[in-house]
Amino acid sequence: MKILSAFILTILLVFAGCTSVEYQAMQNERDRLRAAHEDALRKHDPRQLETALTDKLIGSWQFLDMEVAEGDVSEEIAALKAELHATVRQNLTLDFFMDRNVFRRYRGKNGDTEVTGSFKISSRRYGDESFPYLRIFRDTGLPLHEFLTNMSASRLKNQDTVSMKAAADNWLGVSVTDDTLSLTMYGTMELTPNGWARSSGIRCVFQRIE
User: Residue 42: pLDDT above 70?
Assistant: First the structure.
């Protein structure tokens, strides 16, 4: 009887131990999934995205290069691309700054030409991803797209490979790292094998100088 009781007790202890291990594994998996879910929410939270990009955008930027969508282009597009690259922009700069720590302001200069206004980083959701845009509210000078390209929207929108669907004149696709700023005008959002991506349009690239 004592042997039987000891055997039963051993079985119960082993079972309790297995149950405890399985329960801990299930708890760990739930914690991992919860942490992954919260991390995904933080990454895709538009408010955090917009705040982080606004902080990175503050500073002075020097124009580096301009790109027109590649691919099968007409002679008109080829001429436009050559003209864009030929336009003198060595002295073109953009400054983004806070006015009295409240108002988000921008100033652009290229020789004697100057533009000013306010800005806001917003985002639009495509699938599971949020894509940021720079919204411009002009005060003085040319619209920003004309300041950057030296061309009017009426000319650009007549080109077959340049879409006006995704961005109005005061909406530009924006990408910012510590050292590089990219602004995309007239680009469209397209679903590719690798997910949503911005394509077409005209992209201006800047390097940080301050």
Answer: no
Q: pLDDT per residue over 72-129, tens digit each?
A: 555 666 666 666 665 666 789 999 999 887 789 999 999 899 999 999 998 888 888 8
Chain centroid to CA 102: 23
Q: Can you tell me the distance from the alpha carbon of 194 to that of 161, in angstroms, rounded to the nearest whole number?
A: 22
Please give the Cα distance from 68 to 159 (Å, whole number).
11
| Residue 130: strand pairing partners | 125
DSSP string, 160-209: TT---SS--TTEEEEEE-SSEEEEEES-EEEEETTEEEEESSEEEEEEE-
DSSP character string of 59-122 = EEEEEEEEEE--SS--HHHHHHHHHHHHS--TT-EEEEEEETTTEEEEEEEETTEEEEEEEEEE
Which residues are within 8 A (CB) of 159 and not within 5 positions of it... i.e. 6 or more apart? 76, 77, 80
Per the model's pLDDT, the better-predicted residue between 140 and 73 turns out to be: 140
Q: Which of 184, 160, 188, 202 is nearest to 76 (CA)?
A: 160
Q: Kindly report the pTM of this predicted structure.
A: 0.68
For the record, the structure tokens of 130 come out as 């949020």
* Fold adopted by 47-208: Lipocalin (2.40.128)
